[in-house]
Amino acid sequence: MKYYNLKKNEQVVSFSTAVRTGLGDNQGLFFPKKIEPLGDIESLLSLPTKERNFKILSNFVSENLSQEQLTKVLDKTFAFPSKLVAVGEQNYCLELFHGPTLAFKDFGATFMATCLQEFSDGEKITILTATSGDTGAAVAQAFYGIENIEVVILYPKGKISVLQEKMFTTLGGNIRTLTINGTFDDCQKLVKQSFDDQELVKSIGLNSANSINISRLLAQVCYYFDAIAQLYKKGLPKDKRDNVVISVPSGNFGNLTAGVIAKLLGAPIKRFIATTNANDTVPRYLVSGKWEPKTTIATISNSMDVSEPNNWPRIEYMMESGQFKQDDLSGYSATENETKASLKELKTKGYISEPHASVAYFGLNQSLQNDEIGIFLGTAHPAKFKGSVDEILGMDLPLPPELEACVNKSILSKNIDTDFSQLKDYLLSI
Ligand SMILES: Cc1ncc(COP(=O)(O)O)c(C=O)c1O
Questions:
Q1: CA dihedral (27, 119, 80, 397) positive or negative
Q2: pLDDT at residue 85 above 90?
Q3: Which helix (H) or strand (E) holds 92?
Q4: Could you give all domains of the chain from N- to C-terminal order, each with its CATH number?
Q5: Which strand ranges, in their side-by-side order, compose the sheet holding 414-417?
Q6: Would you say residue 238 has pLDDT above 90?
Q7: What is the DSSP letter of 13?
Q8: Average pLDDT, the chain
Q9: Of 104, 127, 103, nearest to 115 (Cα)?
Q10: What separation in Å is there between the alpha carbon of 254 and the centre of ligand 1?
């Protein structure tokens, strides 16, 4: 499979180049040249997870990874499960937070880190990443201690949960963290500006572990198939099999991009719901056709506080090229009160969740028809948002060991302004 630059179609690269460079010329995103349906989906779904994941991904990476290498990469990436949990009669949560940093980002970050290790030629690489909360921890964990790789993580000062912050700012070693006096969108702009500076790119071997890196999304494609496979195992009647609807809590729209790729590959998903918080650029765009990002608003689902989602061009490309119908996507946005009410409703159904999944559950509730089966994605462990969850649900959530281990450690971050020259000086000083 070749990958081409969505902004400069004549730039066509291999998987390894797409992973190693992150972003193409003119800040263009790389995207697979041709996504073909996988064929016998019933048999694919009945395979053990690792075998199934191998079949899903091999066409995307076979030019650069041997079967043995891909098996090794997948063993590390899928060392932890995704779990489909029933919530009431018609709904399920796909829990994606059973990895080392308790968020769905563990799948993509681990896949990317292990692929890069396979492609390493010993040259120094600097991974520059912006985080709205969970990417930071997943990337830090996936790259911690890897030789020849320096990681620099930017995040908006005071806009992520304390526990999220502790998970990636306390490691030290090859993981460096910078708080930015601005929003997550400002952090993303700084990352993109860095890629525009060719001198910087060359001198520090710049790469990004944000979901602009296509490798991050490929691993995520697999868990959409896994969700359906688990649903079938639970005995989903045949007449419901074409009626599965998935609500994706969306910020940068990487997760939804992966879901749409899964659908194009043949995953039996009827339609998607993209649910955001008040940062609702996409839900508004789906109705009006006008792309009008507003100033980013801080919410309790802070990892989705994004008003200019990086991955939207990939979804738009799949729609414009006729591969994915816009009718198969609807958008909703939840207010803070709706997010809190949904979290409380989930509790009455015996399910303790957190604000991001609760936003997705809200979207499902707005749109699900009686003959449909709904899945909302559980993107983070509730304890990562202990502050909000305890307050809204009136409880005292216990901390899992992964959080307990870092809660009393000191934050090692440095602070800089939203100023590219400050960032550049820092990067050159490493
Ligand atoms: C907990 C959580 N939910 C949802 C999202 C949004 O995912 P995406 O950026 O792929 O749309 C994020 C992303 O940071 C997240 O950390």
A1: negative
A2: yes
A3: strand 91-95
A4: 81-101+214-402 (3.40.50.1100)
A5: 206-207, 125-130, 149-156, 175-181, 414-417
A6: no
A7: E
A8: 96
A9: 127
A10: 8
Choose which residue among 139, 187, 379 to substitute to test ligand 1 binding: the one with the highest number of ligand atoms within 8 A of its C-beta. Answer: 379
Sheet of 244-249: strands edge to edge? 83-87, 91-95, 373-378, 244-249, 271-276, 329-333
Using CA atoms, how far residue 2 sits from 8, 15, 71, 151, in Å, is 14, 7, 21, 27
Contacts 24+ apart (CB under 8 A), 66-69: 69/118
Q: 338 to each of 49, 175, 277, 298, how far by Cα in Å?
A: 35, 37, 9, 15
* d(C-alpha 293, C-alpha 26), whole Å: 21
Residue 354: partners with Cβ closer than 8 Å, 6 or more residues away: 343, 380, 381, 382, 384, 385, 388, 389
As beta bridge partners, residue 151 has 127, 175
Average pLDDT over residues 240-262: 97
- For residue 408, the CA-to-ligand 1 centroid distance in Å is 26
Digit-coded pLDDT (tens) for 327-356: 999 999 999 999 999 999 999 999 999 999
- Residues 351, 358: contact at Cβ < 8 Å? no
Closest Cα to residue 169, out of 133, 202, 201, 145?
Answer: 133
* Maximum distance among all Cα pairs of the chain, rounded to whole angstroms: 61
Cβ-based neighbour number of residue 414 at 10 Å: 10
Buried b / exposed e across 210-248, counting CB within 10 Å, b at 16+?
bbbbbbbbbbbbbbbbbbbbbbbeeebeeeeeebbbbbb
In whole angstroms, give the CA distance from residue 339 to residue 249.
Answer: 11
Question: For ligand 1, what atom is nearest to the CA of residue 250?
Answer: 11
pTM of the model: 0.95
Structure tokens at 203: 């001198």
Give pLDDT, residue 239. Answer: 85
- Cβ-based burial of 37 (10 A; exposed 0-12, middle 13-18, buried ≥19): exposed
What residue owns the CA closest to ligand 1's atom 15?
A: 303
Residue 213 half-sphere exposure toward CB, CA atoms < 13 A: 31
Quote the tokens at residue 173: 């070693």
206 Cα–ligand 1 center, Å: 24
Residues within a 6 A CB radius of ligand 1: 103, 132-135, 211, 249-255, 303-304, 356, 379-380
Q: What single DSSP character describes residue 243? A: -
* Smallest CA separation from ligand 1 atom 9, residue: 252
Amino acid code (one letter) for 348: T
